Amino acid sequence: MSYALVVGGATFILAFAAGFPLLAALRRLSIGKQIRLEGPTTHVAKMGTPTMGGILVWASVFVSTALFNVLNNPSIIVPLSVTAATGLLGTIDDALGMVGTTADGMTVRMKFAGLTAIAAAGAVALYGPLGIDYLYVPTIADKWHIHPAIYLPLAALAIVSTANAVNLTDGLDSLAGVCAAVAFTCYGIIAHLQGQGPLVTFCFTIVGALLAFLWFNAYPAELFMGDAGALSLGAALAVVALMTGHLLLLPFIGAVFVAEAASVILQVGYFKLTRGKRLFLMSPLHHHFEMLGWSETHVSQRFWLVSMLSGMVGISLALT
Questions:
Q1: Torsion of CA 272, 277, 282, 286, to 10 degrees
Q2: Can you give the three-state secondary structure of 32-54, one letter per residue?
Q3: Residue 249 — φ and ψ, nearest 5°?
Q4: N or C: which end of the chain has fewer CB within 10 A?
Q5: Could you say which DSSP state residue 76 is in?
Q6: Do residues 282 and 293 lie in contact, with contact meaning Cβ atoms separated by under 8 Å?
Q7: Per-residue model confidence as pLDDT tens digits over 148-207
Q8: pTM of the predicted model, to two decimals?
């Protein structure tokens, strides 16, 4: 654990130092966030804030892991590769979103196809080279080995779903970053209890990179994560959950992400069933609370508290 914490600290220093020139470059190139007009009016002031800050996260994780964690730990190549691949996919999406005057990047179909391909490759790598074909059921000690016909699509679905859930959560300053840092800390603790040292280091490497990013993303944000960060963080979180065998704890440890994704699904379904009525004032869920009159900082900080409490529940279930 001590080595993991040192590497996490080193990653923070690396990402923090890289953050200033990255922010300057993004400003110089006018790579600013486009704000959707249908969103809360308070967000209009964010127009033009530099985005693609996720590059800072996944690039620093890649460099730090390559230097301090891959040597003699080939299993880490799988989560590292998934993180880098989804990070590149998100970066391309962000870059395309800078073209024109809208907030749209890739088409939904293009993004889904790319994310699915990465997720499928990650699932095969987990099952094949790493031999992971099991899940732990909370309160039951034994591993439940799963047939590949079920495990492979389940693992791919987990990666795609978590990536999209984190992406939907990334709508307020520091919201997705803090919730992700909490989730990776929880899984880092679980991996430590399992004796998976390299995976512990990988988790805290991401935490270190996130803390550096949050320096620039603190309200009022100077830098947004964008798909470059959200997709890679979500995909990496799912892979880590699968490597610990505790995928079933992800709804607890990532409760905020689940709630945000569920709010969008419920909103769309209810809208179609009722022919135009809305279940929430606006989705994802954080916008609903903004429309109720909560300030952005109140929403973010209260969601952080939920993520911390649910993370504690997740770790306690892993201990039973």
A1: -80
A2: ECCCCCCCCHHHHHHCCCECCCH
A3: -90, -10
A4: C
A5: G
A6: no
A7: 999 999 999 999 999 999 999 998 999 999 999 999 999 999 999 999 999 999 999 999
A8: 0.93
